[in-house]
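Internal tracking record. Fields below are filled automatically when a chain is submitted to the structure queue. Please do not edit lines marked as system-generated. If the sequence contains nonstandard residues, flag them in the REMARKS field before resubmitting.
Queue: standard
Priority: normal
Entity type: single polypeptide chain
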Amino acid sequence: MDHARPNFFSGPYIDRRAEAREEPGWLQAARSDPATLYMLGRATTQLVRTKPEPRIEFLTNDHPVVREADPRQLILLGWFRGVRCVLIELEPERSVSVPEGATFEELRPLSPLLLGDEAGLLAYARALVIWRSRHHFCGVCGKPTVPERAGHVIRCTNEICRHEFFPRIDPAIIVLVTDGEYALLGRQASWPPGRFSTIAGFVEPGESLEDAVAREVMEETAVQVTSASYDSSQPWPFPSSLMIGFHATAEPGSIVQVSGELESAAWFTREQIESGGTMVPPSHAISYRLISAWLKGRS
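SYSTEM-GENERATED OUTPUT FOLLOWS
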């Protein structure tokens, strides 16, 4: 694996041009541009074509779904492959006519099969739709909300309140702990048999990333981390996490005692992992990157 490359779901897959969201005429410009591409999102699914290989099913201005869309349903994503790209957020229960062969599908099972830039775009769109679906009403006063700034801000309609809501992400640390010759891996009961991965958990309020690393490892395995260093990060749209990857060290011979959500955890040698007896996460996950770096002596 090339560790100079960005993680899956990340990288320069889109030119966001955030300043365009401030332009009052952004929607008119999109509708008047024949090159504008539209994506459809409905709840946690998105319109794709799965055969012969998974691809985003883009629509253009002349499609009935695009022509009939309420302006409040449209979100300016940015410029994808040099072309303006707009997301249409459909009502969860709405049935629409789509091109033959295209279906609404969940992103997670398709992820390993998608082109990297399309996977990133779908992850971006999915996170926005989920965020918007949870803010139909103001969390401060309870009044209805409306989208603004090309769909990237939601504002309360109560003129006394007018609270603004912005997209949120949930930061989570994910860490490979080693003592030099051994790596600490754990598994959850819901995972496939033999699957082990790195330790992970959400960052709590008032906590630094390094503090979260030490706390999560201690809580889940009773192992004390002596140092930690940042590796890389990965947006993880299930539903809206940002995985912040670390390598950490522990004292040799540290005893493992599982608690919380882990079914089991143990120290593994490189030989045990490389033999195939221990199943590691799929290659598009940041946990794979962390384990791969250690296996090759680069952590």
